[in-house]
Amino acid sequence: MIAEQERLAPAAHDDLDGVPSPAESGAPVGHDAIWETLAGAYGKDRLPQGLILAGPSGIGKATLAFQFARYLLLNPVPREALQTGPQFDVPESLFRQVASGAHPGILHIRRPFNQRSKTFRTRITADEVRAIGRFLSHTSGDGGYRIVIVDPAEDMNIHAANALLKILEEPPANTIFLLIAHAPGRLLPTIRSRCQMLRMTPVDSASMAEVMRRLEVPQPPNGDVERITNLAEGSVRRAILLLAFGGLDIAEAIEGLLKNQNFDLQSARAAAASVGGRGSDDAFDQFNRLIDDTLTEFAHRYAIDGNGETANRLAGYHGEFNEAVESVRTFNLDRRHHVVKTLRDLHGMLHRK
């Protein structure tokens, strides 16, 4: 099991039990080049006010954003900023303030909690983005940066995206927007045009091994970190799901079903019986997390390959899928039907001619 962690950060829709959130994780691993770009631009006082940290889910984008936020807070004068890598000493008080969401210089925008269903909503709404205006109306106490992290930015609905766009058109001085994007193609073109995009790549097996050591994640079968890195496609989050939450069997079942040219209804029903029955909350959550990550990853991959039609189809279905999950939990609908339908829908999109 993963070592017990003192929870500092507010609850979020993609939390993993016992795993620190990005705000609590400290220095990112495997992204030194991106860090050098950011710190170098800041030291020359040329840091754009809008930045998109783009790349597959779970590779450390948000972790880097929070560590860079700490760097900005510790170095409020750009040309006097300490030139360092992502691993640097952070005062305990500052670390805890940032991790707990209590620092007055940082605003973290995420999906809100739905009190009715007792689950997180599937989108970031305009109400959350309006909080940015209130946040920016207060001046920074030390004259340094005010930092807005939107995580992930493609979770914004159209009203939220338009509200953010208005702020980005005339951003206040000493303000930086760090937009986390798993699928940047889903962002409004006008938002992308007002931000500089930095593309982050999946972590390699050496970086994966270092993260596993830090988090005390169970070791992969036969110690084969490279295999898990490949299965997780360089995503630390997916690797943790595979190793620490019994996801390896579920992931391999999903992968097998999606690879076959013909949809295997019998195998889909068998998977549904194992993850969608009563008393299998952990397995059901695992299935939905893996599907969520799979949709994000496939949409990103098809967009990179120039297959915009399939990428858009998957991106649109991503929202439908999350709404279906919320409905199943809110109204106690048949989980096995949800599993089979999800697998059939996803298979149909991937193999549509």
UniProtKB/TrEMBL annotation:
GO CC annotation: DNA polymerase III complex
UniProt feature, compositional bias: Basic and acidic residues: 1-16
GO MF annotation: an example: DNA-directed DNA polymerase activity
One biological process term in Gene Ontology: DNA-templated DNA replication
EC number(s) reported in the record: 2.7.7.7
Entry-linked Pfam families: DNA_pol3_delta2 (PF13177)
NCBIfam families referenced in this protein's UniProt entry, alphabetically: PRK07471.1, PRK09112.1
Protein name: DNA polymerase III subunit delta
Organism: Notoacmeibacter ruber
